[in-house]
Backbone:
């Protein structure tokens, strides 16, 4: 379906320029494009796009009208694939410096996906709320952008002059308003799901495949119920965020040991 196209491309703007998984139509296999340069990042991009591909193949049986997922689950299989691959790579890495670099990269990615995208979302809310009362100037937009960025980045980051126009580099604000929440939602959802997986819950794989096969036919509440997860429960999000916390702890412990 045509509607998948901008989302798939946008999704992959975060991951890497010019990487995507395109579902085409359910009667043929999806197409994955990546630019593989041999860096660890490229391995993660490949895992991400193949995650989309697996999701697209499994959901294909729902047919062209119902195969594509709602935004809430659009990044589930891709981010889960990244997490599995990251853990497998980290387990194989014994060198302390390499482990540190990998963990630091992952933590940065997660902060970008969760904290930064939430700040983007807050910016959009501010803009759209203010727009109800009249047209906004570029200065107004810059002011809202700076207020949100200052809050989300915190005192450790110095914001230079000229940054007030940087809202303009996010294509989502124009092409898919409020899409940014899907990254934060998807990442936290996957973290909670991964926590269930880590506890080696019986039948996880079967349930996970069922979730992916559902495509766009079910609401996330229905799909998460078999895992004992409920996105309306604050502990669901706390569990996801504790995954990020755990990785930061791991990184800090390595730093102290060094
Ligand atoms: Zn993606």
Residues:
């Amino acid at each position: 379906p045509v509607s998948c196209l901008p989302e798939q491309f946008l999704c992959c703007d975060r991951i890497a320029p010019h990487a995507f998984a395109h579902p085409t139509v359910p009667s043929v296999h999806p197409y994955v494009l990546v630019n593989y340069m041999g860096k660890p990042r490229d391995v993660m991009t490949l895992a991400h796009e193949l995650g989309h591909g697996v999701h697209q193949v499994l959901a294909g049986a729902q047919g062209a009208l119902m195969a594509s997922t709602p935004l809430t689950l659009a990044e589930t299989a891709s981010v889960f694939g990244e997490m599995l691959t990251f853990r497998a790579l980290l387990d194989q890495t014994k060198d302390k410096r390499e482990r540190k670099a990998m963990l630091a990269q992952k933590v940065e990615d997660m902060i970008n996906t969760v904290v930064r995208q939430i700040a983007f979302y807050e910016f959009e809310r501010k803009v759209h709320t203010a727009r109800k009362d009249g047209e906004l100037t570029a200065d107004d937009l810059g002011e809202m952008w700076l207020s949100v960025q200052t809050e989300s980045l915190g005192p450790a980051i110095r914001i230079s002059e000229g940054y007030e126009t940087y809202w303009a580099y996010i294509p989502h604000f124009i092409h898919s308003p409020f899409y940014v929440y899907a990254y934060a939602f998807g990442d936290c959802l996957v973290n909670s799901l991964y926590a269930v997986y880590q506890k080696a819950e019986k039948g996880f794989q079967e349930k996970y495949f069922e979730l992916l096969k559902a495509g766009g036919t079910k609401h996330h509440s229905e799909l998460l119920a078999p895992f004992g997860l409920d996105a309306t429960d604050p502990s669901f999000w706390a569990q996801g965020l504790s995954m990020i916390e755990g990785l930061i702890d791991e990184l800090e412990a390595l730093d102290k040991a060094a």
In short: The chain has eleven helices and two strands. The mean pLDDT is 88.
